[in-house]
Amino acid sequence: MTDFGIIRGKVVVITGGARGIGLATATALRAHGAKIAIGDVDEVAVKESGSARDFEHYARLDVTDQQSFTAFLDEVERRLGPIDVLINNAGIMPTGRVVEEPDALTRRILDINVYGVILGSKLALARMLPRRSGHIINIASLAGETHVPGLATYNASKHAVLGFTDTLREEYRDSGVSFSSVLPTLTNTDLGSGVTAPRLLRPAEPEEIADAIANLLVRPRAKVRVTRVAGTISRFFGLLPQDVADALGRSLGSGRAFLDDVDAGARKAYEERVRSDTK
Predict the structure, then answer these.
(1) Contact 253, 198 (CB under 8 A)
(2) Structural domain boundaries of the chain?
(3) pTM of the model
(4) Hey, which residues are catalytic here?
(5) Which tens digits make up the pLDDT trace of 113-153?
(6) Residue 34 to residues 5, 37, 85, 233, 275, Cα–Cα distance (Å)
(7) Position 9 pLDDT exceeds 90
(8) What are phi and psi of 253, to 5 degrees?
(9) Distance between alpha carbon 187 and the CA centroid of its chain, in Å?
(10) Mutual orientation of helices 242-251 and 228-239 as an angle, nearest 10°?
(11) What's the pLDDT score for residue 143?
(12) Among candidates 188, 193, 213, which has minimal Cα distance to 203?
């Protein structure tokens, strides 16, 4: 049985913490005794979520803006103490064919999903290295180990997160700071709204991702895949010849899941929100 006592008292910062995986993780770690600071670009949502759960700190955070990120971390450390854990969770996942993707949206995906992770990791690492202690957890995706039609730029961003996190782990191997990637499958959050998972893959619940992160804090690992079945399938596909893997993926519906099979009505609100700053 896992002893989560090690989490008690840790100062944990979670980006994109107003909803979805971020909020589920904040809630779970708070239950284990952590001091929680959530940031989100949606100021109204982050204040509602933070106040409703009485988190220690909650405020607007734009992960693409160095001044915003620095000020947020400064305030966390002023109020709660040195940051023990940073969870770079903020990310967006618009769907559609890449040729129809506006350039502004492409840049927004990369700014949030890649630059935001790099920026947050740099800022947190600079604070953790002098103490020779800390843990940076970057939320990637199983899409970062494969390729899914309809998610070209998102796939690229998550491949980048995996490569970046793996490199940090080696670059700072003897620093006392741990680095982990979390690779969820399609998850039942706003980000996955209107999308039906390919055959053999059930969507994960955000609480499952939160539980995996809690376990990482007790026993750090380089990568954790959620769900276990989806992670096993992903790794199995990676061992197959490319044409065989592609054909098998198409037979399971991966070629349509984020394109022709998307319920546009159910997904409309999410797509409008993540595209709102690109018009």
Answers:
(1) yes
(2) 4-278
(3) 0.95
(4) 154
(5) 999 999 999 999 999 999 999 999 999 999 999 999 999 99
(6) 10, 10, 10, 33, 34
(7) yes
(8) 100, 10
(9) 11
(10) 140
(11) 92
(12) 188
Residue with token string 């100021």: 43
CATH number for the domain running over 4-278: 3.40.50.720
SS (H, E, C) the chain: CCCHHHHCCCEEEEECCCCHHHHHHHHHHHHCCCEEEEEECCHHHHHHHHHHHCCCEEEECCCCCHHHHHHHHHHHHHHHCCCCEEEECCCCCCCCCHHHCCHHHHHHHHHHHHHHHHHHHHHHHHHHHHHCCEEEEEECCHHHHCCCCCCHHHHHHHHHHHHHHHHHHHHCCCCCEEEEEEEECCECCHHHCCCCCCCCCCCECHHHHHHHHHHHHHCCCCEEEECHHHHHHHHHHHHCCHHHHHHHHHHCCHHHHCCCCCCHHHHHHHHHHHHHHHC
Q: Note the maximum CA span of the chain.
A: 54
- Summarised one tens digit per residue, pLDDT across range 186-225 is 999 999 999 988 877 889 999 999 999 999 999 999 999 9
